[in-house]
Specification:
Chain lengths: 328, 496
Amino acid sequence: MLSRVANLVYWMARQLERAENTARIVDVNAQLVLDLQSRQAADDPKSWEPLVYVTGDDEKFFELYGETVTERAVTEFMLFDKRNPSSLISCVGLARENARCIRDQLSSEVWETLNTFYLKLKSDDYTRYAQLGSAEYLNRVKTQIQLFYGVAESMIPRTGLWWFFLLGRYLERADNTSRILDVKYYMLLPDIHAVGSALDMVQWASVLRSCSAFEAFRRSRRGQLNLERVVDYLVRDDVFPRSILFSIGEAEQALGQITADAIHLEDTEPARLIRELRAELEMIDVPSVIADGLHEFLDDIQIKIFYIHNAIQATFVDYDTATARIQA
Amino acid sequence: MADLFANYEHGKFYDEMFAAPGKARPHYRRLYERFGLMENMAELMDRQRTADQTFIDRGVTFTVYSDNAGTEKIFPFDLLPRIIPSHEWAHLERGLIQRMQALNLFLADIYGPQRILTEGIVPREMIETSKNFRKELVGCKIARDLYVHINGSDMIRDEAGLYSVLEDNLRTPSGVSYVLENRQVMKRVFPGLLRDYRVRPVENYTNDLLNLLLHLAPAHVPEPTVVLLTPGVYNSAYFEHSFLARQMGIEIVEGSDLVVENDKVYMRRTSGLSPVHVIYRRIDDDFLDPTVFNPKSLLGVPGLFNAYKKGNVALCNPIGTGVADDKAVYYYVPKMIKFYLGEDPILPNIETFLSGNEDERSYILANLPKLVVKSVNEAGGYGMLVGPHSTQQQIEEFRAKIIAHPRNFIAQPTIGLSRCPSVIEGGTIEGRHIDFRPYILNGETIKIMPGGLTRVALRKGSLVVNSSQGGGSKDTWVLNDDITNPPVPVPEKIIV
C-alpha cells in the first residue's frame, strides 16, 4: 500500500483510540466525583486536576483556562475545545479528515459511520453535554466509536490497510492505558495512612473503570483492590484487551502481518523495538517497579512507544527513495 | 385538485418540460401525470429532503475557495430530472463523436505536421501564443496516437431549443462523479419512475474509463498499474477523484507519492517503490513537473515529463490538450471539422467574436452590455463578464482589460439558456436555467455515457450554472427508446 495511505490510516486509528480513551477518562472521573464524600467535591480542583496532567497537555490547559481547575473547564478542554489537539472533538475531526483523504480505500459504510458521527459531534458543546448528563452523553460517544470499530472490523479487508489500522490503534491504547494508570499518581490521598482506605479503593476502582477493566479484574483476580494487583492487571495481563502487554502484543502481530509480504522489512528496527518492549513487560517484577517509582516506569513505557512510532515512520513512510527497494 | 404547475411561469425561454402552459412535452408526460397535482408538493419536498440528506451522509461534497478558505459544501441537487428523448440523444451523440474526432486530429496535427497552420485555416500565431500550447511536445510520439482522451463539452439550448456547444473541456473536465451519484440517489428516491421511463444506465462510465486507461499503457507491460493523480484533499474536486479511484479500484496518489528514477515512474509503498504505467491525472499541465513547467509547483513530480516523453508512462489527458479548449481556438472548431473530416458540423458553436480580430473587437467594445465576455483560459465561471447583468463599472473594467490584452478574450451573445422546472425552497416549482455537460471518451473507440451533468442555476434569473457560483445539478435521463414520443397511454396508476 501507499506509504501516505498507511500513515493516514495509522493516525486515524490513533486519533479514534485517543478520542475513546478521553471520553472514558472524563466519564469515570465524573462518576468518581459523585462517589466522593461531599457535593462540593464536584468543584474541588483536586477532583479534576489529575485529568489535566495525565494527558500531558497541562501547559496548554493552564494557558487557555488559567490556574483555576473547574469541572467545566476540564470537561470543555478535554471534550469540546478545538484549540486542544487531543480533545475528543479534535481527535474525531482529525480522524475524519484522515478518513476523507483515504475515502477511496474505505468502504462507503466505514466512511459514512465516521462522517455521520463527526457531523453530529461537531456542533456539540458543554451545554449539550450538561443537558444530557455526562453518563448519557459519553455513553453515546463511546457507542458511536464502538459502532465505527464494528463496521470497520466487518468491512475492511485484511490488507495492509487493516494492519496499519490495528498497529495505530494498539500503540495508542498501550500509551493511553499507561496514562490512565498514571492518573492515580496525581490523585492525592490526604496522607500516607490513607493507603488502603475507602477513598483509596474508590480511586483504584475508578482507574479500572476507565479501562472498562473493573469487572474483568474482579473475575480474574480475586481479593482486594490494591496498587500491586491493579498495576499487575493493567500492565501485564495477557488476555485483557486493554492491558499494556496485550496491546503491545497485538501491535507486534499487526506489524508481523505488514511485513509478511515484504520479507526485506522483517526484523528491522520497528519489530526489534516492539519485541524488546513486549519482553520487558513480560519480565517485570511488579513490586520492584512500584518500589522504584511507578510514574517513572510508565513514563519510560511512553517513551519506548514513541521510539517504536518513530521507527515505523522511518521504515514504512519517510524512507529514502534512493536506497529503497524496487519491486517487480 | 389544483394543477401544481398552474402558476408556473414559462417566460420567453425554451422550457424543457412544457411546450405551452399546461401542455407537457411527450417525454415529460409521465412525470407530469405522476406529480402534476398540488397535493403532490409535500411528497416532492419530502423526497427532496431525503435526497439532500443522502448526499450529506455520503459526503458528496466540493470545496469552495472564495468562501472562507475552502469550505466543504454539498453540491445542491434538484429532484426534477432533465429528460432527453432518444432521437435527440442520437443527434447529440453523432455531433459529439464528430467533434471529438476533429479535435483529436487537430491536436495530432499541431503537435505534428501542422498542416492546418500551414494552410492558414487556423492562424499560426493564435496557437503559438496560446498559453496551453506545449511546443516541447511537437514531434513527440504519443501512446496509441490518441491526443485527447476525455472531453467534457459544455452544451446549451437556446430560445428555440437548438443544442449548441458552448465550450470544450479537454484538460481535466470534472463533474462526472455527480452524474453517477445523482443517479444512485434517484434510484432510491424515484425507483418506479426510472423503471417506467426506461432510462439508460450511466453505470458503465467508470468501466469504460478504466478500459481506456489500460489501453494507453506501454505495450510491453502485461499487467499495467494505473493511478489517479490528485492535487490533494483540499482540491474542489477531491470527492470526485476519490470516487473515481474507488470505482475503478486504482490507487489515488498525490505528487509526493510518486518518484521518478531513470525516467521511470514509481509510487512509494510501505514495502518499497512500485512501478506506475498510466496516470489519470487530475492536475493541470502547469503543475505536473516542476522541473519543466511551473517551478513553484509542489503538486507535481520532478522528472515526470521526461518519463512521459520516453513513453514509459502514459498520461490521461495527454500534455498539451489545453490548446484546443482555449476559448479563442474554440472559434475554429467548425473549420477543423470541415478541414479534417470534410463534413459540416452536426452541432454548431455559439456565435463568437474574437477580440484579437480588429473588426470583431470594435464590435465587442461597442456592444459590451449585450455580450458575455470570457477570458480564454479560465474555467469555472471565473474571469467572465455577463453584460446584461453587470454594472457600468464592471463593464468598464473589462473594456480596459480587452484593450490591454485582446488575445485573452472572446465574446458571445447572451443566450437565454433553456429552463427546466426545479423544486424551490419554500415549496414551489419554478423554471431555472440549465446547461449540459456530456462526457466523451476517446480510446479504442469513442464512447459517450448516455447522460451527463445537467447543471442548474438555482438563483432566480441567474444564467451562471457553475457550482462555484451557486449552481446545482439534476439527474439527466436519456431514454432508451421513444416509447413516450409519440406518447403511449399512461396506465391509470404508476407505482413510484
